[in-house]
Amino acid sequence: MTLYRFIAIVFLSLSLNLSAQTINPLEGRWDLEMEFNGKTVPSWLEIRHSGHETLIGRFVFAFGSARPISEIKTEGDSKFSFSIPRQWEPEGSDMVFNGELIDGNLKGSMVYTDGSVVQWTGVRAPKMAYVEDPVWGEPIQLFNGKDLSGWHTDGEKKQWVIKDGVLINPEAGSNLISDEKFQNFKLHVEFRYPEKSNSGIYLRGRYEVQIADNMGLDPMDIYFGGVYGFLEPNENAAKAAGEWQTYDITLIGRRVTIVANGRTVINDQTIPGITGGALDSKEGEPGSFMIQGDHGPVEYRSFVVTPAKY
């Protein structure tokens, strides 16, 4: 070994050790719960370094997409703060966060756009095992074609109906949630929507796959086939409004594959965290399917789940 190569290896080793030693304990992905408007709502936070000292991140509130955090200010290795512009919130000031790492968990407050103060807590997002070739169980048709047995809504408006074997959301109202919960699965759905409509399917009730009238637009994570605010499809495979369309979705751990109308638009990608509108932030647990009904009309004629065996 030459002296030059030896020095280079030593320098690289020291650099790697120094980098490892300077990782801030706040860094990582956190599943949050916030006491908002009299109830507990899920949220999500990511903190990571940019360069040697700057901390940046992303935040998902109870609604809306993932929002970038340009700078997170710290006080020591436990206290932090940041502000973030409003998205779908009422007019007012930026939201201001203050948090602290206590015994491995986060705790803090948020000043909302109207000046009210929201308390929140956070735990590290769990690691979720990936199985390369799971053994699949028997397919389950979650709709019986006659009534809404096995499903419930999250609001007072009961606008969902089944007509001629088709599940129909005629107008904005309550979301529809499956009684049964699933962990790893394959999902086949057939759906259609009218012009300008917008809906979505929440996997485990936490990760929204967008359904919307976006044919012909450049692909985006907030358009047809995307995992809302996180994963952009590699092409926009949407058909015209009024046509029947299909999703075939495989979710194992955090890794998702989405085949839209026969085209693989997201291939074995990692979902970073929950999306806005999620039922909860308990990512390590099985979850229900939720069909978005609070936006626009949508119809389904098939909703088949094949769970993985354990």
TrEMBL record:
Gene3D superfamilies associated with the record: Exo-inulinase, domain 1
Domain (3-keto-alpha-glucoside-1,2-lyase/3-keto-2-hydroxy-glucal hydratase): residue spans on this chain: 139-304
GO molecular function: hydrolase activity
Alphabetized UniProt keyword annotations: Signal
Domain of life, source organism: Bacteria
Secretion signal, residue range per the UniProt entry: 1-20
Name of the protein this chain belongs to: DUF1080 domain-containing protein
Source species of the chain: Flagellimonas nanhaiensis
